[in-house]
Structures are given as C-alpha cells and as structure tokens.
Design a protein that fits this description.
single chain; about 130 residues; alpha+beta; 9-stranded mixed beta sheet; 3 helices; 9 strands; about 50% strand
C-alpha cells in the first residue's frame, strides 16, 4: 500500500483553499461534487504531499460527523492498492471494520474506494490503482 493523500475535512472549500495557498499549496484537481457521499472535494498539493479537502454538503454527509468533532482538520489517510478486494479482506482479518462499502468515486475517475476503521488506527480509505 502506498499513501495517496490525506483527507482533510473543512467547513468551506474556498476559504480553506485561500489559507492553504498562503502556505504554498496549489490546486491539482477541479472541484468535485460527490452526490453519493454528499461532499464537495478538491485536491491540493505541496511538494509530494496531496491533501483532499472535503466539505460536507449537510449534516447527512458521513464527513459531517468528523467535521462536527474536529472542525477543520485531517481525518483519514488514503492508500493506493492494486487489488482492493484482497486489501479489504486482509484488513478485515486484521480487525478493521468496513464503514463504507466499496463503491465507485467520482473524484477518482469512478475507481473503487472503501473506508475502513480500526479503533487503534482511525479511519483509512483504500483506492484502487
């Protein structure tokens, strides 16, 4: 598994982008409206680090619970995997719980992603290469 990005929940994408640009980050994607997950997404980059800014559209978004708890802040690490089904199986055997079943994600050209959680680790996302 290779780190793809860090997920960073924010209240407002545009305001967060202004602040990250002051720190030297640049946009590396367009804005995505993910209706299935009820979030707006923007990828930004500095050096070799990519952040996924995630704005919950409303309180029914899964990301809203993280925003409510953290306000603006990092909340998941995303890993690229060659075989998402095998990776999910291995992580479940290691005690991870699937919190969002595997499904296509608009921000990744409809490649499959899956969110898993382990109390001693927190939330991770897998994305198929």
């Amino acid at each position: 598994m290779q780190i793809d990005h860090i997920g960073y929940v924010v209240k407002n994408l545009e305001k967060a982008l202004v602040e990250f640009e002051k720190l030297g980050y640049e946009k590396c994607s367009t804005f995505f409206d993910d209706e299935k997950r009820k979030v707006r997404i923007l990828f930004i980059k500095k050096n070799d680090y990519i952040l996924e800014l995630v704005e919950p559209k409303d309180e029914s978004s899964d990301a809203y619970a993280y925003y409510k708890k953290l306000q603006n802040g990092p909340y998941h690490i995303c890993y690229k995997v060659d075989n998402i089904d095998e990776s999910i199986k291995n992580l479940v055997e290691e005690g991870y719980l699937i919190v969002k079943e595997k499904s296509a994600a608009i921000a990744f050209d409809n490649k499959n992603v899956c969110f898993l959680y382990k109390r001693s680790m927190g939330l991770i996302e897998l994305v198929e290469r």
